[in-house]
Design a protein that fits this description.
Strand order of the largest sheet: 3-4-5-6-7-8-9-10
Radius of gyration: 32 Å
Helix content: 10-25%
């Protein structure tokens, strides 16, 4: 971090609030902006802060699985497939399969599988077939140990006796999974022959398939383990960085020496012998002191500086609002995003393009804002 003051001591608690522990000097261990009643600046007092939590909603707490979730997830299985036609000759069909679930948006699983089927439902076709298919599952009931999913699948079957002859077997059914590693799947199928009728004189048969599946990922380290219900983070720290950078650029574009006077004023504003520290809102106190100390050149940076004050006030209010919302949550409820705001006066001074001695340096860039706050653009 570019901050040149001594050691910064801050403790953030993003789920319930943001609390701060600090030492008695700005230049030393400058306290992180904390979740207490934010002190509005003179400019911010005239305009209420924006609701920075407008997009944060109360949602149900996701159910944690007993075993981790993998992507892709690999299963092997065995099963039985048959038809309901009394006119067609019935041959038992035993199935061995390998399946990979390679896309998992939300509660949906999308996968591909291959099958080796021993036996055919109609005697005029071969006794062996190879199948390739796609499968979509919707896990509509999920607990820590078991889940139930609706299944839609379609298999393309190749007759080993006549590779140019193909069958299609679409299916609709359900699957019960235990600890994401054992599953039983039951589907109602339609066996369709586009080129040749079955022995009953029709090109369509109805059937049922049952498959027992075992997951391989928990047994090895060849699958990527997905994070368990990651929650997006709303971090307002970069907003203050960009606002301070705009003040810096405005000062450098103004009359010669404006940026130097702004930095000299920032050094005086950091002097706790003249401007006592406010550990409830150290950044707000620093901005008020800087507004006063930079009075001779303030008109040149008034507009972006006011935006900086308003952005900080809105971020501070967000801390209180987030903590209040957390306290009203019921059982099995959570907020859709974690909120955080971690900014110190030393950081703001650096982003304004000033060093610890009060000399003007380069303004903060997008890369610097990302590095200092730890938030990617």
């Amino acid at each position: 971090m570019r901050a040149s003051g001594s050691r910064i001591l801050a403790v953030t608690f993003a789920m319930t609030a943001l609390l701060t522990v600090a030492t008695p000097s700005y230049a030393q261990a400058t306290a992180a902006t904390a979740a207490t009643a934010p002190v509005a600046t003179a400019a911010a007092a005239s305009a209420p802060p924006d609701d920075v939590l407008a997009g944060v909603k109360v949602v149900a707490t996701p159910t944690k699985s007993f075993l981790p979730k993998y992507e892709p997830e690999i299963f092997v299985g065995v099963g039985y497939s048959g038809t309901f036609s009394s006119d067609a000759h019935q041959w038992p069909t035993f199935v061995g399969s390998a399946e990979g679930l390679f896309a998992r948006p939300g509660n949906f699983d999308i996968g591909a599988y291959s099958e080796l089927r021993l036996g055919r439902p109609d005697e005029q076709f071969g006794r062996f077939e190879v199948g390739f298919g796609l499968e979509v599952m919707w896990r509509f009931y999920v607990t820590a140990v078991a889940d139930v999913a609706a299944v839609l699948r379609n298999t393309y079957l190749i007759d080993t006796s006549d590779p140019n002859r193909a069958l299609f077997r679409p299916g609709l059914g359900a699957q019960l999974s235990l600890v994401r590693s054992l599953a039983i799947q039951l589907t109602y199928d339609q066996l369709y022959s586009p080129s040749q009728d079955f022995s009953n004189g029709h090109g369509l048969l109805h059937g049922l398939s049952v498959t027992l599946k075992v997951g391989l990922c928990p047994m090895g380290e060849f699958c990527h383990q997905m994070p368990e219900h990651s929650v997006e983070k709303l971090d307002r720290s970069p907003v203050t960085c960009h606002a301070a950078a705009l003040v810096c650029k405005t000062a450098k574009a103004a009359a010669v020496g404006t940026d130097a006077q702004l930095c000299a004023a920032s050094a005086r504003a950091m002097d706790t012998t003249h401007w006592p520290a406010d550990w409830n809102d150290p950044v707000g106190a620093f901005l008020r002191a800087l507004r006063s100390e930079s009075a001779p050149i303030f008109s040149a940076v008034s507009a972006p500086f006011t935006q900086l004050e308003l952005a900080h006030a809105a971020s501070m209010k967000g801390l209180d609002d987030y903590a209040a919302r957390q306290r009203t949550l019921g059982d099995s409820q959570m907020l859709s995003e974690n909120y955080g705001y971690l900014v110190t006066p030393v950081m703001v001074r650096d982003w304004l393009g000033c060093d610890a001695s009060g000399r003007a340096i380069a303004c903060a860039t997008d890369a610097i804002c990302s590095t200092d706050t730890g938030v990617s653009p």
